[in-house]
Specification:
The structure holds 2 protein chains of 2 kinds.
Chain A: E1 2-5, E2 8-11, E3 15-16, E4 28-31, H1 32-37, E5 47-51, E6 69-74, H2 81-92, E7 98-103, H3 110-115, E8 120-121, H4 129-135
Parallel strand pairs in A: 3-4, 4-5, 5-6, 6-7, 7-8
Antiparallel strand pairs in A: 1-2, 1-8
Chain B: H1 6-27, H2 33-41, E1 45-47, E2 52-56, E3 62-64, H3 65-78, E4 82-85, E5 91-93, H4 101-109, E6 127-128, H5 143-153, E7 168-171, E8 185-191, E9 197-203, E10 215-222, H6 226-240, H7 251-258, H8 260-274, H9 282-291, H10 306-313, H11 315-324, E11 325-327, E12 333-338, E13 349-351, H12 352-365, E14 369-372, E15 378-384, H13 388-397, E16 412-413, H14 428-437, H15 441-447, E17 452-455, E18 469-476, E19 479-486, E20 498-499, E21 504-505, H16 509-523, H17 530-537, H18 540-546
Classes of the chains: A alpha/beta, B alpha+beta.
């Protein structure tokens, strides 16, 4: 599957494991609750974590240095909590790994998402990747300090 | 007033290009209805009963004559030749076509105007006192702070998808003319015991379905922390505000459900984390204050004697001066209200000719600036007393000199059922009917200071819950009824009106209003305004007379 990462369209090999699905080999992400309740130490491959808007970033800040990928899931594009999550992860908790947006959001939100520190984008409609990439150049000026 | 630099201009130009692309994708079917809705709302574009409605930002209510002429141009070229002033100092066009909106925004951008975040669940236009910088009771001019807040809000990447809309108002004077207690955040410039000027910060006020008066979250905030404190409040709201029910999503509900103590604790904790990095420097404030430096006032303006002569000769001029002209901090100058409440027009409406002519008068008499007020009038804020008579004659010729500011016919009114998709009942027609019933100007002036606010539905766009008399249109099985409240106020003594009784039928509403006024006249003490009489005698005598 193709995604945008660091302003490039690249092939991606991560699998996002649902809570009721078996773990698969390779690089995977799991939900916060599965992360908290399941022993994932023996997994072959990297393990990332998925945060929903209602999750608290404070719950994972002790472990940030061992998380290679944090996925912010959008159940609906109007829920803006993940924007604050990204900002806090980058600015307050100094997270250096990949932050990826997935789920129901618009290519038109990619500019703001990248401003708050999201650096990877997986879209529901892969045909919109080019539009999403181009929106990152919508504005060349800004008023607020933020992550980017 | 604030003049854009290259960055400001680039930003709004790029916004026009962005919205043009989004509109094209929508019209081609590449962008869904819900998605485009969110994007167009953040550019002020609603789809209404008859046509789209475009709301253009009037930043803290301050416009230049050039901008006013552009509004006239837009209303001529793309609309039906008039515009509407809103209760949050913005400007609305009721009849644009969707396909023309990118062009309208481009025209507006050419005079440093935009429609960014005038709607949607985001940080809205910051409003302030329409007499800022000229009133006699000012602690400090709030407009430099408003512009700094405006810039912080525009395209804020973290706060574009809040639980609900978010409105900030700033007052710099002793008398609150910006309804700051009824905003999501209200800021009051105050002087502390040490003589330093800072902000009293209120949170959780609001109108709409659940009117609430804001609570103090910080009694004194140093100026340098203005933006960090706002950011802390909005971040706490973004993360914790309710998203399960749009009628419970405003910050006022979060404050109510969590309690002001908890809310304060969360905000202060958040603020401690960010305050060091977000300080606004003295240099930035002084640079911004330069944009709002006092005009080159004439020092001998009060030497003029013609004003007195005209007052002695023309009774109508006296009446107008008494009601529509207000004191100015510079001797010999006055602030003049341009009444948009002439009988038989929709409150707040202004035609393209009136717009052009007012722009001309602003150039001639008031340093080329115009303010919009939250009671839907205009103000020419810096007029020499020597020019008042000729200004009055010109305004009179345009039906813009109705001497009714602050009286019963200076009503706030929403577009109502005639335009708005949300409304249950018409409001403009009722306003006209009440106007006709109070057409005796002596009677109107005898009643004196009275604020009537009327909304066509419980969303409360016309702030009926804080009207001295509030009128709320409700729908009962397809028939329009009107709920009355008495005793509301949006000023220093902010209060929510009390319900008078059951809703009254459409053909009884004007009678009910005139009955209420008769009861007031019967019970008032000498010099006592309507609101004070209601507060003193209670609503019972009014109730008995109406029902």
């Amino acid at each position: 599957m193709k995604i945008i990462k660091d302003k490039q369209i690249i092939e991606d090999n991560w699998t996002h494991i649902a809570d009721d699905a078996e773990l698969t080999n390779g690089n995977i992400t799991v939900s916060l609750s599965r992360w908290n309740h399941e022993d994932l130490n023996n997994h072959q491959g990297k393990v990332g974590i998925r945060l929903l808007p209602a999750d608290k970033v404070e719950d994972i800040t002790d472990e940030l240095n061992k998380i290679p990928l944090i996925v912010l899931e959008f159940p609906i594009f109007t829920d803006g909590r993940s924007f604050s999550h990204a900002r806090l992860l980058r600015s307050r908790f100094n997270y250096k790994g990949e932050i990826r947006a997935i789920g129901s959001y618009m290519p038109d939100q990619v500019f703001y998402l990248s401003r708050v520190g999201v650096n990877a984008f997986q879209l529901e409609k892969p045909e919109e990747l080019a539009v999403a990439l181009s929106t990152m150049n919508d504005f060349t000026v800004k008023y607020q300090q933020s992550t980017n | 007033m604030y003049q854009y630099n290259d960055n400001d201009q680039t930003l709004i130009n790029e916004r026009v290009t962005q919205f043009r692309g989004q509109t094209e994708r929508y019209l081609k079917g590449e962008l869904g209805e819900d998605e485009f809705r969110a994007l167009r709302l953040m550019n002020g574009l609603y789809i209404q009963t008859h046509a789209p409605m475009l709301r253009v930002a009037g930043p803290y209510g301050l416009l230049s004559s050039r901008q006013l002429r552009m509004i006239a141009h837009v209303s001529r070229k793309y609309d039906k030749g008039y515009a509407h002033i809103t209760t949050r100092q913005n400007i609305q066009f009721n009849w644009p076509e969707l396909k023309n909106v990118p062009d309208i925004l481009e025209d507006l951008a050419s005079v440093q105007m935009h429609a960014i975040q005038t709607s949607g669940n985001c940080l809205r236009n910051t409003t302030t006192d329409h007499l800022a910088g000229v009133c006699t009771d000012e602690i400090e001019d709030p407009r430099p702070y408003c512009e700094i807040i405006r810039q912080w809000t525009i395209l804020h990447p973290e706060f574009a998808y809040l639980p609900r809309k978010f409105k900030i108002a700033v007052s710099g004077s002793k008398q609150d003319r910006a309804a700051t207690q009824l905003h999501d955040i209200g800021l009051h410039l105050i002087k502390n015991d040490a003589g330093e000027i800072g902000f009293k910060v209120l949170v959780g006020g609001g109108l709409g379905r659940t009117p609430v008066i804001g609570k103090v979250i910080r009694p004194f905030l140093e100026k340098k922390h203005l933006l960090s404190y706002l950011e802390a409040i909005v971040r706490v709201y973004n993360l914790n505000g309710r998203r399960d029910n749009k009628y419970k999503a405003r910050i006022k509900i979060l404050v109510r459900e969590s309690g002001i103590e908890n809310m304060t604790e969360w905000v202060e904790a958040e603020w401690q984390q960010i305050k060091q990095d977000m300080e606004v420097s003295d240099a930035r404030y002084s640079e911004m204050k330069n944009h709002f430096a006092p005009h080159p006032y004439e020092t001998n303006a009060n030497q003029d004697s013609s004003f007195k002569t005209h007052l002695a000769q023309d009774k109508n001029f006296v009446t107008w001066v008494k009601h529509n002209v207000i004191d100015h901090k510079i001797p010999g100058y006055r602030a003049v209200f341009v009444s948009l409440k002439a009988p038989a027009i929709a409150p707040g409406d202004i035609t393209e000719k009136q717009l052009d002519d007012v722009a001309e008068m602003a150039d001639q008499y008031s340093f080329g600036e115009i303010r919009t007020t939250h009671r839907q009038n205009l103000v020419l804020a810096d007029v020499k007393q020597a020019n008042l008579f000729s200004l009055w004659q010109k305004l009179s010729a345009l039906s813009l000199a109705t001497p009714n500011i602050g009286t019963a016919t200076d009503m706030i009114c929403c577009p109502g059922l005639d335009f708005c998709a949300l409304a249950n009942a018409s409001s403009i027609n009722i306003a006209k009917e009440i106007n006709e019933a109070l057409d005796d100007i002596d009677y109107l002036h005898d009643i004196g200071d009275l604020k009537i606010n009327m909304s066509g539905c419980m969303n409360g766009c016309a702030h009926q819950s804080v009207g001295h008399i509030g009128i709320l249109g409700v729908d009962k099985k397809g028939v329009e009824w009107y709920q009355l409240t008495l005793g509301g106020s949006s000023e220093n003594d902010a209060a929510l009106g009390q319900r008078l009784g059951p809703a009254v039928a459409k053909d009884q509403i004007t009678k009910a209003i005139t009955t209420i006024l008769e009861v007031y006249i019967k019970h008032r003490n000498e010099q006592e305004i309507f609101l004070d009489t209601v507060n003193r005698v209670g609503i019972t005598p009014f109730k008995q007379a109406v029902y």
